[in-house]
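User: Fold this; tokens only.

Assistant: Input:
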Amino acid sequence: MSRKIGYNQPGMKRLGNIIMADDNGNDVSLGSYALRDAGLKNSVQWIKDGKTLMHYLKQAQLLGQMPLLIVMDWNMPGTNTIEVLKWIRSQPEYLNVLIAVLTGSENPIQKKSAYEAGANWHIVKSSAFAELTELIQRIKAFWAPDDGLPNFK
């Protein structure tokens, strides 16, 4: 018997939290501000490295939960971003989780690598505030408020 995966999977509860995986507190503050500026009141979980992010997601998996959005720094310490992206996309429950990668570079090879590993968006930090705000607006427009996402108003 095949089982459905991702957000529509009966056993998984879609949480409204957003994970900011970045070792730089200033970038997390900027990202959190962009989320609030976009009208998102969801809680933000700050995770400082790739290994901790994978551990957090494994624990959430055991609880049958998944985040609304993961925003990852390209240069996270510990397990690198490509490895984390590939691991996330190898987990059936997380195939549909939304992932944005923030980077300091417009390097097309880096961008291609991020997309090939499973990122939904590749955003350059120099314009991160405006782009992240726009991204959140698009996510909100994609899911209607009555789709059950907490705190979307």
